[in-house]
Hints:
It comes from Candidatus Roizmanbacteria bacterium CG_4_10_14_0_8_um_filter_39_9. The chain is an alpha+beta fold.
Amino acid sequence: MRQIGPKNRLARREAVDLGLKTPGTKSHANLLKKLNVPPGQHGATGRVKKMSERGRQLRETQKLKHIFGLSAKQLKRYFEEAAQKPGNTGLFMCQFLERRLDNTVFRLGFAPTRAAARQLVSHKNIKVNDKVANTASFRLRPGDIVTFADEKTQKIPAVERALENKEGIFPAWLERKAVVGKLILEPSSELIEKQILLRLVIEYFSR
């Protein structure tokens, strides 16, 4: 079951911006101010408990789950599929996550957050290879083209603001021209590993 409730509380619990709030909003600004303060009544003054290795593994797994908006069961399925392939389990797991349609819509700058991207997909506002796709977990392949289903979608305020952002930097495996995006390569694990200690996630699921 996905986490519902205060998103800033989740980010403060993990002490990292999980990308759950739209950049530039008041809520996101408040998060950045308090990111290093744990949530709760005694967050600013409470003692920091020493964490066990298992606890560290759990925290990194929780972070990855929240970043991509997945349930624990979904994330475990990605690990199990990756573990069956010969080679780097962590890399394969990252590729599966990055190739999700909702994540790709977010990475292309079509939506301000993954949650917003997931909503666009579920409301049939996104096409893959000129066919409407409404499954957030749909896994893209190199060569697949992602566009909006119609021009009306581009006029949704959140989408319009996201498209106006000219400072976005796209991952090397994605290409965007105007409102047309394309997966050109297999994703790397680079962006995920900037936020997550992937080794601990693999260890958590391997026990």
